Amino acid sequence: xxxxxxxxxxxxxxxxxxxxxxxxxxxxxxxxxxxxxxxxxxxxxxxxxxxxxxxxxxxxxxxxxxxxxxxxxxxxxxxxxxxxxxxxxxxxxxxxxxxxxxxxxxxxxxxxxxxxxxxxxxxxxxxxxxxxxxxxxxxxxxxxxxxxxxxxxxxxxxxxxxxxxxxxxxxxxxxxxxxxxxxxxxxxxxxxxxxxxxxxxxxxxxxxxxxxxxxxxxxxxxxxxxxxx
Length: 229
Description:
By secondary structure, this protein is an alpha+beta fold. The chain contains 4 helices and 17 strands. The longest helix is centred in the middle third of the chain and has 24 residues, at 67-90.
C-alpha cells in the first residue's frame, strides 16, 4: 500500500478526511465477504436494529485478524500516528501515540482494552446506520478507516457514508461521501482540529450511513483501539 502520506496528511488537516485506494482486489474483497458467515472469525455480532442504531448487522473480528486486514492496519497506523500526534500537540495535551500498531495495542491492553474492534458490516434493503462515534474505552485513536467491498451502482444503490461536523456555536454540516469498491476512507473518530484566530479548536465529528435503496453493501471498519473486555 504505497501512498503519498504527505498529501494524505495535508488533506486530513484541510478537510478532516481523505479517500485513497487500498490495493485490495475484487477477489480479495469477495473472500472477506464469503467469510462473513464463518462464526469462528468473530467474537461478537451486533444486530443493529436491536439497539436502535439503524438497520443491518456487523461483526467484530477475532485476533488474529485476517492477514489482509492486519497488514492494512499496520501499514496505515504508522503514518497516521504522525497526524494523530500533530493533533495532540495542537491541543497541548502532553500525550502522544506510539509509532507502531503493536505498541498501541499494548497500550490498550494495559488499560484492560483487549477485545478487537475491527469489524465487517453488512447492509441489505433499507439498511442504514445512525450518526454515532466509535469510542470503546479511555484509550482511543483519533482516526479510523472504512474500506468498501462492493461497487456502488452495481452491487447496491444509496448507502452513502455521512460525516456530521459540529462546529461550536453553529449548525451541523453534513458531508456525504460515495467511495468506490476497494477505496479506503479516513476520517476522525471523535473530532478534528481547525485553526482559528485564537489558535486551534475542536470540531466534533460523527458518522453514519444513509439508507440503502437496492442491493447489498459490505464494508470493513478499521478501528485501531481495542475495547474493554
